[in-house]
Amino acid sequence: MSHIGLTMDDGPRTTRSHRRRNRRRRRRRRLGSGLAVVLSVAVVAALVAGIFFGGRALFGGLFAPAADYPGPGSGEVTVTIESGSSLSEIGSTLVEADVVASQDAFVAAAEEHPDGSSIQAGEYTLLRQMKASDAVLAMIEGITVVSRVTIPEGYRENQIVARLAEETGFPAEELQTAIDGGAGLPAYAEGDAEGFLFPATYDIKPDTTAATLIEAMVSRFGQAAETVDLEAGAAALGLSPRQVVTVASIVQREVLREEDMANVAQVVYNRLSGACQENGIPTGRLQMDSTVHYAAGDNGESVFTTDEQRQIDSPYNTYLNSGLPPGPIAAPGEAALVAALNPSVGDFCYFSAVNLDTGETKFGVTTAEHTANVAELQLFCRDSDLC
Questions:
Q1: What average pLDDT is seen over the chain?
Q2: What pLDDT is stored for residue 18 in this prediction?
Q3: Residues whose CB falls within 8 Å of the CB of residue 294, separated by 6 or more in sequence, listed in order
Q4: What pTM was computed for the model?
Q5: pLDDT attached to residue 348
Q6: Are 157 and 179 in contact (CB under 8 A)?
Q7: Deepest in the core among 196, 289, 330, 361, taking most CB within 10 A?
Q8: Would you state the pLDDT for residue 14?
Q9: Which domains does the chain have, with CATH numbers?
């Protein structure tokens, strides 16, 4: 029997060749499987590491304490809390003002405090960069500012009462009673509050009354008096503190610009001393329109006085009476007090506003100079309704 194309040696050689190929395939499969396992382990390890570190960052961010300042803070800032504000809204307001580091820290601190929900609407004066719990405590224990009222320099007592009544809601009668009581006035005020209700901005708090508001204004005058060293300065001029405040009140009413105040004070003292007699001013006669307006009972809506007004029988009419009027005619600010204590040096005997828009005032020594300045004012008044 013959086998075409096959020899005796073909069979065994073919079998050995197959076995070698199979062994190579098995080694490749084992190598591939091992590599797959290694790669799988690496992937799993990477996933585990990602979960661990990513999760730690995620959950650490979720559960880490909210940003908070260590406190106690510094400086001062006023924040306004609107009516109906939630703790979150309050926190946002405080963050904007840099009072607290984060809204969450404030809310958490407020929720932890038993009275944290009792924070009221109003204005609070707080430190910058406070610890959230300190800010909460300050707002709980602090007194809110319900409103503010500003008294301008040069206001007279009747104007002050009207402004306070309008802005605060306190009855004018209560305010006037508090003023007439004279509480806190310095002895040199001689029981008269005119000129001693200091022009400034005052906070109206929940516990503010008409009486405490007036006391605050008198107290604020006391602070200004200390700042300018009123009593010692008056003594150096040979005047009483009340007389200096009277000069300051005239200065305050006569000019608008602080830069002119010392010159007005110079004119006052030159006229009082008789230094202006040669220039047409009787010795000791101030001849100030501001005092005539006070005597007339008006608030000086016009810069001029009439012949009739200048004949009013009143100790405040400095056209008829020599020397200072009996007391202040308005509430001077600190700049006017400084000017009254430190008049400029010179021979000025006259002054006149020449531009009521800007408050520009010109000064003169002689009657002729004054006449020219008044003519300039009259020219301005032709085209202005301020006169």
A1: 87
A2: 46
A3: 156, 300, 316, 325, 329, 330
A4: 0.71
A5: 98
A6: yes
A7: 330
A8: 41
A9: 74-141 (3.30.1490.480), 147-228 (no CATH), 239-382 (no CATH)
